Amino acid sequence: MEKRQLGKSGIEITPIIMGTWQAGKKMWVGIEDSESIKAIRKAVELGINTIDTAEVYGDGHSERIVGEAIKGVRDRVVIATKVFANHLKYHQVIEACNNSLKNLQTDYIDLYQIHWPSGSWGTEVVPIEETMEAMNRLKQEGKIRAIGVSNFSLSQLQEASRYGQIDSIQPPYSLFWRFVEKEIQPWCVEKGISILAYSPLAQGILTGKFGDNPTFAEGDHRKDNRLFQPPHWERVKKALSQLKPYAERYNCTLGQLALAWVIHQPQTSAIVGARNAQQVEENVHAAEIRLTPEDLKAISEIGEGVTRYLDDNPVMWDFKRG
Q1: How far apart (Å, rounded) are the C-alpha atoms in residues 196 and 194?
Q2: Annotated catalytic residue: which of 57, 173, 198, 246?
Q3: Peptide bond into 231 cis (omega under 30)
Q4: Contact assessment for residue 314 and residue 179, using Cβ atoms and an 8 Å cutoff
Q5: C-alpha–C-alpha distance, residues 24 and 250, integer Å
Q6: What value does the mean pLDDT take over residues 186-190?
Q7: pLDDT per position as a tens digit, 203-221
Q8: Is 250 a known active-site residue?
Q9: CATH architecture of 4-203+256-289
Q10: Predicted confidence band at 319 (pLDDT cuts at 50, 70, 90)?
Q11: pTM of the entire structure?
Q12: Residues in Cβ contact with 11 at an 8 Å cutoff, skipping those fewer than 6 apart
């Protein structure tokens, strides 16, 4: 698989990144550790060199699964993990990084990211200068190789950049969720910052697998995704039907088409989760699809039939809905 540079770090990443939120199990159902490990190993075998996780995914469980899965191939993978919004004081960042290193069974993290801005989810507000001071120290010590942010607004990204080199931002970004295009993407292109798109399949919606009336098992957080709620869901269904002819044209699934669209965007790679090795194999094929400029434009316009009705709130879920 081709590789791209991560920001200005000199680190090379693949356009398809293995996402491991589901490996943490918390907020997901039907996840088996053995299958998660097989999926990660299959990803590496098929050429995906970048694996994304976070300390908060299952309170470290996802990181431990990744650590187990990459035994013997650490030198072939780029590990990206994140420190959560409740650990952004100087000493907390240092401690969180050390815990992640232990979980991942490694002595360095390639990309260390601030998962959510300070104050998110009711956390204490910590000056970004303090957090970045800790991140810079970790980089100087060789415990991390690059610094990234996640779920930041443009102004937050710009402020963080005042205190150190930011090589990536991780926002939700898919054909159906595109607020990043308004301000963040142009600035990242100008500054050479990579965009690592999470939920590039809109949590499975772009695979078309949910049918007309999606139902979810108890404990599955996806039920709170705003795209499943009316009136957005009717627009989603219409757009999916309009995308099917393009998937047929490229002899691929709807999901592969959606991933191909994301990685065709400027400086953008797609973080894709997988429950098992078979799903990894399906995701990998998206990197081989070459969309024509005309089809790329047409697919974008279909997606706008959903996104133009969304507000600028970057949070995909309405957890208060119950």
Answers
A1: 6
A2: 57
A3: yes
A4: yes
A5: 34
A6: 98
A7: 889 999 887 777 777 777 7
A8: no
A9: Alpha-Beta Barrel (3.20)
A10: low
A11: 0.94
A12: 5, 78, 110, 111, 145, 146, 167
